[in-house]
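Hey, I'm writing a tutorial for new members on how sequence and structure tokens pair up, and I'd like a real worked example in the thread rather than a made-up one. If someone can provide the structure for the chain below, I'll link this post from the tutorial.
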Amino acid sequence: MSYFSAISKIQFEGPSSTNPFAFKHYNPDEKIGGKTMEETLRFAVAYWHTFTFEGNDSFGVGTMLRPWDHLSGMDQAKVRVEAAFEFFEKLDVPYFCFHDVDIAPEGNTLAETYKNLDEIVAMLKEYMKTSKTKLLWNTANNFTNPRWLHGAATAPNADIFAYAAAKVKKGLEMAKELGAENYVFWGGREGYETLLNTDMKLELDNLGRFFHMALDYAKEIGFTGQFLIEPKPKEPTKHQYDFDVATGLAFLQKYDLADHFKFNVEANHATLAGHTFEHELRTARINGMLGSVDANQGDMLLGWDTDEFPTDLYSTTLAMYEILLNGGLGSGGLNFDAKVRRGSFEAEDLFHAHIAGMDSFAIGLKVANRLLEDKVFEDFIAERYESYTKGIGLEIVQGKTNFHQLEQHALSLRDIRNTSGRHERLRAILNQYLLAEQLSSVQ
């Protein structure tokens, strides 16, 4: 049975195309910087927003119209698998990702939940035998069910800690079974509402213990995928322990985990933390911790996680700039942790949204590659910090000076001149490159 019968396989038709079901900029076979777009961008469809999101919000019930709406439970879960692989094939994506509860409903007991998961994992594995689409990563949803109201690995109840461990254990087994290239931890409830009832030290210590147990079990079963932490500052928990990359890195270093984890950086989570997307990517990159990316964007007029499909070309360009400087994403990828708007309720809107996101990152890739080839920002930055390549600056960098010598140098100075940061000029240059890409595309 076809669930998207009105839509053919999405092809690259170029920027002059008026076909709403065609890529205008994403050409998977086009080489940029020595690699094909598909190899660099490594797009992944997020199972949860694409196949399970109902369009509900805090003020209204779901609005989405889906071919599987008439079903429920495991019957619905099985149809979603069929629909998912049709969607993957028509979009021609190399990867997908999921939470455990996305692919199968929870049962009345943990054993029943395991049984449901086993049945769907077997089905996924069978479809993957004839599909190009692989599993980028999976994760355990330890935040939706009421049992997680006080957290999972950081819960004050040891039984909840054990339940969370059991779900992650099962998640790692599924990752091994399906050949996942990564495993993600998102601590949606790992945090606190008030310090008046919180033993922060115990909670953080327990979270560290939890991650070490996960590492031990992955080693035991031979799962070699990259472990990823996805930072988020708030929502649903007021104070989440994985606030941003810097906070997460400090945690990993304290608990001797930094050699085993990298970060899955989300654009919308960055803005919730008061950072730009590129700030979080760079913080991860310069520390050797950039592993994967949740490709979405937030609404600057709204203060919550709107998970919009990425269409901001400034953001996609600056993101790809960091990713290219990182040498790519390794085993990671760009997964669309993004949902269509509540008013975009028809099934075909899922294709429109992914096409828009994939084209936006394709443009970002091309512009970022040209910026790097021309060394536009690199040359400017090198010139700006030139004083650290000679004289007292070089001695500072090499650790060959001290406060006594620096004081003598400062006392000898007669005229200190700063140079302009040229912020506006650099933004204008970025505009030039973006516009040049658009002009070259339409010629």
